[in-house]
Write a structure and sequence with these properties.
The protein is α+β, with helices and mostly antiparallel strands and 502 residues long. The protein is built from 16 helices and 20 strands. The strands form 5 sheets. Strands 8-12-13-20-19-18-17-16 form an 8-stranded mixed beta sheet, sandwiched between helices. It has a 5-stranded mixed barrel with strand order 1-2-3-5-4. The longest helix has 23 residues. The protein binds one RNA strand of 76 nucleotides through helix 1, strand 1, strand 2, strand 3 and strand 6.
RNA sequence: GGGGGCGUAGCUCAACUGGUAGAGCAACGGGCUUUUAACCCGUAGGUUCUGGGUUCGAGACCCAGCGCCCUCACCA
């Protein structure tokens, strides 16, 4: 920030910075040997110790500061929590000058004995203080206010959600509960790794920059490689590379990483997002359903301590087994139409009655209409964890035909709160069938569907060597986190969500 | 992309029908050696998102733009 846009608060802090340097005090320290976290310092005190609790050295950020003549009280916050500090001029001598130049948000390290104040709070009586980092810019804290009922309410210091996402560092610094969300995220992801590792899955890394993109229906981000002088795409899915590994004899593989889709952004879509994909040779989609049920219910239990999550009026119950609804049958029950038998015209007419604009419905055909029917009639009602199974063939170019019904594929998706959380199928392993499906996609692309999949000849070649039958599963990790935390926006579970530049 | 809402001090918000931009907290100065929403006295702090327009006069009304949120669409 330039001088002329600096606030008076910042000017005041810079004046103190200059004063500190003039006094020979370096305002940015190198390190501090702490003996204890804030929480441990508090826990180490016992009332039998009286005024002579243990000597501790703690470091952290000042989150409150109350000066009172020749004394001052402050709260220091570190990763563990908070501890109160008590400064006295007569206990600090020369360092008292530094204490008077402290501000909220400064990082300090202090030494002192722990005691309990008259008002009952366990506190460090500071005998030495070091400034570790001067804060020049006040954190946007909200004011707190006590309501009539005596409750303390903090008005979101960063009620402005834009600032929270743009300056996540400030959001995290001010909101312990936000830090907790991302701790939970880390615990969830490492639990998922452990879950798959224990079942013999090998974690692998596949290319993010790809000459061809595939494995999903989405528009890609395009970049350019200078030396090769060729376009490269940021992957929209891991799928096609992971299945090549099945050909190579890595029977169980998984990857947790970012996919990139150049599409709309909203509460449930970020341009880059975390996807977990796993593939298991000699398994089919029923095996993957069992795996999904075990994985998600285990994760919910691990992260939330229960299988029943209260979300508004609803209680989401993750206790297995979860209901399984046939795509075609489910849509038929809600709409009266069998999407495998109905004509496009019938589906258009049915959709028109639900509020889908007619002129828009006119542009849909085939698989797109079937999908619209599903979204209009079945998806919104899928609040409890539910598997939707056996998707029409037109919707699933990478899935194996259903062994009992040629119109369908062996595919399922998991829905919770009306949102897709996971997608899986018995993987197509017939190279000739796969080639025909790619050719279909090419025709759709020629007809203007820019999300149709590209023909991947190398993938076909791999399959021609013989790909074992396999079950594959993709899980949207961010959306899973939304369910675990109950947070309403994908931005709330991504540290640095995509934003327009300021 | 369509529709709706919002944008005022560092933060949270006021400002009637168009009539001198305010408060609390934070900041700064003074006082106070066990406070914790500290307290008391005082001071300072504004491109009312940006650019046009209407008007004697615009934070408010009109137009355009920017940003964010909600919603619909797109996005399996």
């Amino acid at each position: 920030m330039t001088d002329d846009t600096r606030s008076f608060v910042e000017e005041a802090r810079r004046a103190k910075l200059d004063e500190l340097r003039a006094a020979g005090i370096e305002p940015y320290g190198y390190a501090f040997k702490r003996t204890s976290t804030a929480a441990a310092a508090v826990a180490a005190y016992d009332d039998a110790m009286g005024e002579d609790g243990p000597e501790v050295a703690v470091a952290g950020r000042l989150v409150s500061y109350r000066r009172q003549g020749k004394t001052a009280f402050a709260h220091l916050e570190d990763v563990s929590g908070r501890v109160q500090l008590y400064f006295r001029q007569d206990a600090l001598d020369a360092a008292w000058g530094l204490v008077q130049l402290l501000d909220l948000d400064d990082h300090v390290g202090v030494h002192g004995r722990v005691f309990r104040t008259r008002t009952g709070e366990v506190t460090v009586r500071v005998t030495a203080v070091e400034l570790l980092a001067k804060s020049l810019r006040p954190l946007p804290r909200g004011k707190t206010q006590v309501t009539e009922s005596g409750e303390t309410v903090t008005f979101g210091g960063l009620a402005d959600s834009e600032v929270r996402y743009r300056q996540r560092y400030a959001d995290l610094a001010v909101h312990a509960e936000v830090r907790e969300v991302f701790r939970l995220r880390a615990r969830a992801v490492s639990w998922l790794r452990k879950f798959l590792d224990e079942r013999g899955f090998l974690e692998v890394e596949t290319p993010i920059l790809q000459p061809l993109y595939g494995g999903a229906a989405a528009r890609p981000f395009v970049t350019h490689h200078n030396t090769l002088d060729m376009p490269l795409f940021l992957r929209i899915a891991d799928e096609l590379y992971l299945k090549r590994l099945l050909v190579g004899g890595l029977e169980r593989v998984y990857e947790i990483g970012h996919d990139f889709r150049n599409e709309g952004m909203d509460r449930t879509h970020n341009p880059e997002f975390t996807m977990l994909e796993c593939y298991q040779a000699y398994a089919d989609y029923r095996d993957m359903m069992d795996l999904t049920e075990a994985m998600v219910s285990g994760l919910v239990e691990h992260c939330c301590g229960t299988l029943r999550l209260e979300r508004g009026d609803a209680v989401l119950d993750f206790t297995p087994p979860w209901p399984r609804v046939s795509f075609v049958e489910g849509v038929r029950l809600q709409s009266g139409l069998d999407v495998c038998e109905a004509t496009d015209a019938e589906m258009r007419a049915r959709l028109a009655r639900t509020g889908v604009p007619r002129e828009e419905a006119e542009t849909f055909s085939g698989g797109k209409l079937q999908d619209e029917m599903f979204k209009a009639f079945l998806e919104p009602g899928l609040i409890q964890p539910t598997f939707v199974v056996d998707y029409p063939k037109a919707l699933s170019p990478l899935a194996k035909p259903h062994r009992a019904d040629a119109r369908l594929t062996e595919r399922f998706e998991l829905f919770v709160q009306g949102r897709e959380l996971a997608n899986a199928f018995s993987e197509l392993n017939d190279p000739d069938d796969q080639r025909r499906r790619f050719e279909d996609q090419a025709r759709q692309r020629a007809e203007g569907d820019d999300e149709a999949q590209q023909h991947d000849a190398d993938y076909i070649r791999a399959m021609e060597y013989g790909m074992p039958p396999a079950g594959g599963l993709g899980v949207g990790v961010d959306r899973l986190l939304m369910v675990l935390t109950g947070l309403p926006s994908i931005r709330d579970v991504i540290l640095f969500p995509a934003m327009r530049p300021e």
